[in-house]
């Protein structure tokens, strides 16, 4: 399990590095380079529009790679998704700007961002399922949390490199070639990730399935459509919080408040490090007390904290901004640390890769794709005042997610599930022990 968890963490970190380095570049530099004919505000919105394209592609990637994962195994998904995401990220770093090739530049940027999202949409399902289906009962939350640490590692790598380049280069050097370096580094990381994943064994639970779903998406839509929509709505708050902190606030503080890139990147990175360190702890609590209570607690905390976070951000003071960010991300990880165990437990094994991944990535469309765009537009309407509209937007999404989590069932920890089913054993995931199957059926209507 440690070797498997380490490989899953490393691969997820690499893929999310690819995804996050684009978000940081969109906040800092892509607007002027690829949309120079727009006003500064419109250029930022356009850059965030291409950022959103990655989220739109993620559910499509989960369908494509989920089909592969449910039909051919979890392991092939990890290789194919890493190749696609890595290649498209490197190509972004090679892309000519608007000044060189005109309107073709933003169109190619949009296409490559779409391919990035397509690959990442398959990554999460494969990495999480390979880990959770190997994990011993009673510790699935803990072991499946390691792929969830990957985004924090990828974010720190992406932004650390951006921070070093931003601090070490002049504005002209950074705009000319410095921003491209993190995209090129993605190629090296992809090779490392492929090497780490080359020796992983296929999921034992997948090998036990005798009747594989011929059309996993059709089965998910037919039997689990309500569950998919509820999980997508439930996860929207987490995406909205994370990208409000890591992407929108970076653009807002540097453009509107005059805070330096170095200060903002340092504040955000420090908060993400705390979030990553606390992820296994929250997952252990999920193994002990259940997944749903932690998700409800995280959503409630987020709903209460969004207005204070906006107030602290508006001060422009590093310590105040860090406090606002770190509390928001602790609320976020209280939900997302247990999601890697929770979502697979809601689905039967034969459609698990598709169902869990589609729900997870559809939540990204609802919460992550629109948040930087909506928050930027709402902040512009504040006319120099504290952008309370952004706080209201984020609070509203948190309340919506809280309602969705309230409608989802608990997938009992393995010992309780086994006792409830009367077997006295601890085999299978929540969806296979009786309790989880009943929960999934109830949520699916």
The proportion of residues in beta strands is: under 5%
Unreliable stretches? 414-439
What is the average per-residue confidence, as pLDDT, rounded to a whole number?
81
Q: Shape, please?
A: globular
Number of strands: 0
In CATH, the topology is named Growth Hormone, Chain: A
Structural class: mainly alpha
The number of helical runs is 19
CATH superfamily label: MFS general substrate transporter like domains
- Can you summarize the main beta sheet? none
Summarize it.
The chain is mainly alpha-helical and 445 residues long. It contains 19 helices and no strands.
SSE topology sketch:
Blueprint: H1 2-34, H2 40-72, H3 74-94, H4 98-101, H5 104-132, H6 140-168, H7 171-176, H8 181-197, H9 204-208, H10 216-255, H11 261-289, H12 291-315, H13 318-336, H14 339-345, H15 352-369, H16 371-381, H17 388-407, H18 414-421, H19 435-443
Helix pairs in contact: 1-2, 1-3, 1-5, 1-6, 1-8, 1-10, 2-3, 2-5, 2-15, 2-16, 3-5, 3-8, 5-6, 5-15, 6-11, 6-14, 10-11, 10-12, 10-13, 10-15, 10-16, 10-17, 11-12, 11-13, 12-13, 12-17, 16-17
Name the descriptors.
about 450 residues; mainly alpha; about 80% helix; 19 helices; single chain; Growth Hormone, Chain: A
